[in-house]
Design a protein that fits this description.
The structure holds two protein chains of two kinds.
Chain A (H helix, E strand, L loop, with lengths): L1 H15 L23 E5 L2 E4 L4 E14 L1 E8 L4 E8 L10 E6 L4 E7 L7 E14 L3 E7 L4 E3 L5 E2 L3 E2 L1 E6 L1
Parallel strand pairs in A: 1-12, 2-13
Antiparallel strand pairs in A: 1-3, 3-8, 4-7, 4-9, 4-10, 5-8, 6-7, 9-13, 10-11
Chain B lengths: L1 H18 L6 E4 L3 E3 L3 H17 L4 E3 L1 H11 L9 H11 L3 E10 L2 E10 L5 E9 L5 H12 L5 H19 L14 H8 L3 H5 L3 H41 L3 H54 L2 E7 L4 E7 L4
Parallel strand pairs in B: 1-3, 1-4, 2-4
Antiparallel strand pairs in B: 4-5, 5-6, 7-8
Helix pairs in contact in B: 2-5, 7-10, 9-10
Classes of the chains: A mainly beta, B alpha/beta.
């Protein structure tokens, strides 16, 4: 009879158990997930954790930018704590005509990314991924990725669009 | 004629048979000598003894007055005549078969009664009896018993006592000892029932209104809890769906819209969980109270079975006193 009791009790708990639902609002396209003013350039996610030796992807986003045709994003990082493995283009400027995408990593903690919109629409707007950086965590502790003030948004006439927010991302190596 | 002769013969024989009576011995009973007791007590004992001899048709007793006058006429003093020979002489004077004499002595809180029956013909003691009696309340019974015993017979009291002893012995030997099986009564009937089903114990213990109220409350709260639980389940499914739609959309406007919907769904979902939890707490509280009440009812029942101690006023002594009563059910 003991097994009947066990089945009864376990089924009772199964019936009454409450799984707490959770809102997963972690979309990189959601402006509410950024802590900077717009228009701006930010990291998604702004805080990422991993173990030493792990490879981590950090995405760079243009946030609520109006009619942009070209972007220069300068990123400062701690070269003693992370190694840059790869840098790839995001989908913000991706259309039928692929964008121009150039980056320069001096391996001393500074990356310059240049990308230009090449489609017939001439410009685009809103929120979109500019680039994705894959890094390897070298040592324990936090290291920062900072969008410097030398970064630029340019419109179709090569006129600079003022940037109000410069994002900051934290990578925590455990 | 033959028949008439037979009847006459039969009548004649019956007449002879019934006309014959048993000849009782004539006895003279001298007053029992008092030793350490009042004379009146020994005289009363002697009188009872005489009466019983006559009443029971044990002997023909010379009455006391005749006996005393005969003794006085012949110049005898009762106190001087203590030997068997002297008593036999008195018997001859009285023309009786036996002279009964004796003594009653009080010592060590008991009465020792001695009785001698002297045969007038032989001048020797025919019978001698000694009785030891605890108190003087039963001296009348003892005198009667002594009267019967003087003639080697058992008194009615003795016969009754023997029969009673035999009857008890017969009953004791006949009756088998049947072990009485006393089942220990379960002490918590209401509590057990209320633990299983709220209100059941109250219904069992005749608190019907409370029992139905508890049962109804639990059913209502149970229904409410089920509604909240189902609402929670629906909201959880919605939340999961909105989460997936939010994650998959690339439209910035849709992202904003889904965010609001998700936050609202999450809020509702938590509200339903809270309501469900509060309802369960309420159910649990009522359940616990119902058990506590049932336990109290059971305890109360147990207490009522216990010896009851009261302070009462005793009218005969005009004083308050403690009264202890025990229910025999």
């Amino acid at each position: 009879m003991r097994w009947i009791n066990l089945v009864f009790i376990s089924s009772l708990f199964t019936f009454l158990s409450c799984e707490i639902g959770e809102a997963k609002l972690d979309s990189c396209l959601d402006i509410a997930n950024y802590t900077i003013d717009t228009p701006g350039i930010g990291f998604c996610p702004e805080l990422v954790s991993g173990s030493v030796g792990d490879d981590i992807d950090i995405q760079i986003y243009a946030l609520e930018v109006p009619d942009v045709a070209g972007i220069h994003a300068q990123i400062q990082y701690d070269a003693s704590k992370v190694d840059i493995i790869s840098i790839s283009s995001g989908d913000f400027f991706e259309r039928s005509q692929m964008p121009i995408f150039i980056f320069d990593d001096n391996n001393e903690g500074l990356i310059d990314i240049y990308t230009f919109f090449m489609s017939n629409e001439m410009t685009t707007q809103g929120i979109g991924e500019i680039a994705e950086i894959e890094v390897t965590l070298k040592s324990y502790g936090e290291s920062e990725f900072i969008i410097t003030t030398k970064s630029e948004f340019l419109d179709y006439n090569d006129v600079e669009i003022p940037i109000k927010g410069f994002g900051r991302g934290i990578v925590n190596a455990k | 004629m033959k028949c008439l002769g037979f009847i006459l013969t039969l009548f004649f024989h019956f007449n002879i048979l019934f006309s014959q009576s048993v000849e009782l011995p004539q006895v003279g009973v001298l007053d029992f000598e008092p030793r350490g007791i009042p004379t009146s007590l020994s005289q009363r004992f002697t009188e009872d003894f005489r009466n019983e001899l006559e009443k029971a048709n044990l002997a023909q007793v010379i009455d006391r007055g005749t006996l005393l006058s005969t003794l006085e006429d012949r110049g005898y003093e009762r106190t001087n005549c203590t030997t068997d020979h002297c008593e036999a002489l008195i018997g001859k004077l009285l023309d009786v078969k036996f002279i009964i004499s004796g003594s009653i002595e009080y010592s060590d809180s008991v009465y020792v009664i001695d009785m001698n029956m002297v045969s007038v013909n032989t001048g020797s003691i025919e019978k001698s009896k000694t009785m030891v009696v605890g108190n003087n309340q039963n001296l009348k019974d003892d005198s009667e018993t002594l009267a019967w015993n003087a003639f080697d017979l058992k008194s009615p009291q003795q016969i009754a006592a023997i029969e009673e002893r035999e009857r008890i012995a017969r009953i004791a030997s006949r009756e088998e000892v049947v072990p009485v099986e006393i089942k220990a009564q379960f002490k918590w009937p209401s509590a057990l029932r209320s633990t299983l089903v709220p209100g059941w114990g109250q219904l069992y213990s005749d608190h019907r209104r409370l029992g139905w109220s508890l049962m109804g409350s639990e059913l209502a709260l149970g229904g409410l809890a089920l509604i909240f639980y189902k609402s929670y389940e629906y909201q959880l499914k919605d939340l999961d769906l909105y989460n997936r739609m939010y994650a998959s959309t690339t439209d910035q406007n849709k992202v904003k819209e889904f965010r609001e919907i998700i936050l609202k769904a999450e809020k509702d979902h938590i509200r339903h969980i809270d309501n469900f939890t509060y309802t369960l707490f309420a159910m649990g509280s009522i359940w616990a109270l119902n058990i506590v009440h049932a336990v109290i009812v059971d305890l109360d029942r147990e207490v009522s079975k216990m010896p009851q101690l009261d302070i009462v006023y005793n009218k005969s002594t005009n004083q308050p006193q403690l009264s202890l009563s025990i229910a025999l059910d």
